[in-house]
Amino acid sequence: MITSQLAARFPSGMTALAILLHVEQRTASYGAAGLVLAATSVGQALAGPLTSRWMGAWGMRRVLTLTLGVCVLSVLALALLPLTLPGYVFFGLLIGLSTPPVQSAVRTIYPKLVNAAQLTPLFSLDASLQEIIWIFAPVVITVVSTQVGTVEGLVLIAVILVVAGGWFVLSPELGRVRIPRSRRAFGLVVLKPPVLLATVIGFLLIGGVSAVEVGVVATFGHDGIEAGLVLGVFAVGSLVGGLSLGHIPIGPWAMARRLVIVTLGLTLAVFSLNIFWLGGTLLLAGVGIAPVLAVLFAITTASVKFSETAEAFGWAGTGQLIGAAAGSAVAGFLVDGAGPQGAFLAGVLFTLVGLIVAIVFVRSFPDLRERDASPYPDTEPVTIPR
Q1: Looking at the domain assignment, is residue 245 inside a domain?
Q2: What are phi and psi of 382, to 5 degrees?
Q3: Pairwise CA distance, residues 142 & 223, whole Å
Q4: Fewer CB in 10 Å around end: N or C, the chain?
Q5: What is the pLDDT of residues 289-312, one digit of tens each?
């Protein structure tokens, strides 16, 4: 299940860069490419909670198959049709709206695959291994799109969606696990304090990470390999942190402690743009990222009913998508005004606010040291014959 969902999510690390390169090449405008990417991000943010909730009403396989089919056709249309800018924007939006909710599905299934004691380490392992996507996917799509062609790059994404997405959809677990239909109105689950905190802190954490990525690229430029190496070290730090800290029980202060690691590493990165200094400080900051995500996943699933888990993860994903867009935008403006260090400062501010939120609202975090992270069972009135 872990391998199939990682393969199915691999295009998520390729799509934005492939669209950027393709649209820029066809229109000779980075502004037009940015507009198409914005449409794709908006589509993903809007669709995440909705398609995740549909899985409880229609079944996971039906929703995943429908979204997968629409997404593949949209990617191929964007790649092969002779479009103008409105056409690129339309299909970019459609790609975002039809992004398969694999992440919500698999994190809803996890509590049914392992016993209670293994659930938190499993979330940590999942958060760690997803760094593989962000290490290798951008490299693969950049090589294909620049050395072979942008059309071929988008077609490759479509092929991976079909093969890997089909592998995930056909997994036996998707047939054995059924999400009950949620009885609450759409959107109410995000008002639960732990879910709201997971959404807000996810927004701030990913916003900080995205700002740092902009800062690294602005520091070393697009032409050399230095930016890729530094970002790779950043991801390796997250992988190491998730694997080494995943077994630690999650208490109310777990989020704050792990955010301290991220904030400290990013704060140290501000003081020098030397490649070795940045590599070391971002390695330190990365050690806290996967453990923070593991806490986000655990407190989300531990605070809702099983029928609400998919929608809750959909809202958390939307928060992270908006955070990525906000962090990149703020960092871009600061790079123009103050240089690359402005982007690193933006990353520090994002994560520092997240740390403050985790400290101020510490009482709203569930204590999972004495209980497991499994969702609450769904119950309903039972009619007793008289």
Answers
A1: yes
A2: -110, 125
A3: 12
A4: C
A5: 888 988 888 888 888 787 777 788
